[in-house]
Design goal:
The protein is mostly helical and 254 residues long. It is built from 10 helices and 2 strands. The longest helix is centred in the N-terminal third of the chain and has 32 residues.
């Protein structure tokens, strides 16, 4: 028999509310932890499979329709998971703890990281002897290429990746471990599902900062701002170098 957490009245195995004081029965802590562990595993496997399948599909077809379909699947998967923890996630869309100081950091930090990451990865790619890759080699095939790149990279990624990783996944991990491990674990999983060894070198520490902002200020907005500015600036750099690539100019008849 389990006692009511409020009045200590004994509850039956199927009682949802206490017959004495009316308090709602609290879930057994161990049961809640097991459920969260299961949800974390399901979440990770789901998005890992999504990343692998997306990679394989992109090898076969990199059309705009393919991109839209895969991005739509990602959005729907994120929303589906978030609905299981809707009330707690909804509370993360608050402006209550946002102030001028953390807002200034959220604007200045990604301005620094965008340049460091972009040029740092370019340098590392050359050192490793790998070919440099510009995202507009793919997006450039689409009509209104910058518009679509902006939607996919600067809008969908910041909004829904923050919802998935710093929203749903973060909440589930907090049920089973402490905040420090939660921040590190979400950052690691966030990096791994991006499916790029070189990217892990910067996505992991970047994810730690995003996780810290989410935990300290109990909001997703700051992480979304950081994520948006970083992605948007990298997108601008990619577009600038793509448009000034001599080979592209030659192909465009310039």
């Amino acid at each position: 028999m389990i006692a009511c957490s409020q009045c200590k009245n004994l509850l039956g195995p199927t009682d949802v509310y206490c017959g004495n004081c009316g308090a709602k029965r609290t879930m057994d802590t161990s049961k809640k932890e097991k459920e969260s562990v299961k949800q974390v595993i399901i979440f990770y496997i789901t998005f890992l499979v999504y990343a692998i399948v997306s990679y394989v599909i992109y090898l076969e077809s990199d059309s705009l329709i393919t991109e839209i379909v895969l991005e739509t699947v990602f959005v729907l998967l994120t929303i589906m998971f978030s609905l299981f923890d809707f009330k707690r996630i909804l509370k993360l869309y608050t402006f209550r703890y946002i102030n001028l100081k953390n807002l200034a950091f959220s604007v200045l930090f990604p301005i620094c990281t965008a340049g460091i990451v972009y040029f740092g990865i370019e340098w590392l790619t050359r050192v490793l002897g790998e070919e440099s890759y510009n995202m507009f080699y793919d997006y450039g095939m689409y009509e209104n290429s910058f518009f679509w790149a902006f939607i996919f990279v600067a809008i969908i990624a910041p909004v829904f990746e923050e919802l998935a990783f710093r929203g749903y996944l973060f909440n589930q991990l907090l049920n089973v471990t402490n905040p420090r491990v939660t921040i590190i674990a979400t950052a690691l999983i966030f990096a791994l599902v991006h499916f790029s060894f070189i990217s892990i070198l910067w996505i992991f520490p970047f994810g730690i900062v995003l996780g810290f902002l989410r935990y300290k200020y109990r909001t997703l907005w700051l992480g979304m701002i950081v994520h948006f500015i970083h992605n948007f600036l990298v997108l601008l750099l990619e577009y600038y170098y793509y448009m000034n690539d001599p080979l592209i100019e030659l192909l465009n008849g310039g």
